[in-house]
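Ops channel
N.P.: pipeline sanity check, posting one input/output pair.
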């Protein structure tokens, strides 16, 4: 059973079998990646239903469902759909745990990474910078982020800035 991602030790509130969750995620990504009719397109009402179901999952789960979906989509190399999923996760985490929480920063950094993978470093820089600032504030706070993890996010920001300057 999928219980969202057990990010921060909290399981999601919804339960779907692994294959059902992945099937929904892939159909949602299909509707993003192929908005124009294909030889055998998904009918518009079905694409709309996937979009509505996705938003409902996001509201129920406060960011954990889109986070899990984004991870699945990155593994499949579907970076545009993953970017959108991580953006949804950022919004959900901001609603549930606040802007200055590491879950929000994790989602921001993943969204920034997707922008880099898509060749959009100028969009990645502000996300990576904000995520890194949240991580730095949290090192002295309740969440003890390791020095290695901070270095990883500093490297991500440096890579984004280097690519943005070269673009």
């Amino acid at each position: 059973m999928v219980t969202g991602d057990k990010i921060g030790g909290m399981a999601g509130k919804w339960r779907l079998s692994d294959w059902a969750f992945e099937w929904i995620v892939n159909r949602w990504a299909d509707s993003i990646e192929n908005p124009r009719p294909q030889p055998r397109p998904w009918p518009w009402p079905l694409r709309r239903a996937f979009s509505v179901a996705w938003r409902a999952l996001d509201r129920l789960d406060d960011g954990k469902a889109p986070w899990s979906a984004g991870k699945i989509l990155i593994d499949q190399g579907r970076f545009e759909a993953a970017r959108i999923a991580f953006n949804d996760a950022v919004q959900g985490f901001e609603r549930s745990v606040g802007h200055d929480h590491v879950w929000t920063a994790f989602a921001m950094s993943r969204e920034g990474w997707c922008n880099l993978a898509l060749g959009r470093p100028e969009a990645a820089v502000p996300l990576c910078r904000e995520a890194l600032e949240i991580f730095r504030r949290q090192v002295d706070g309740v969440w003890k982020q390791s020095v290695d993890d901070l270095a990883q996010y500093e490297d991500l920001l440096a890579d984004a800035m280097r690519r943005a300057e070269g673009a």
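N.P.: looks fine end to end. The radius of gyration is 16 Å.
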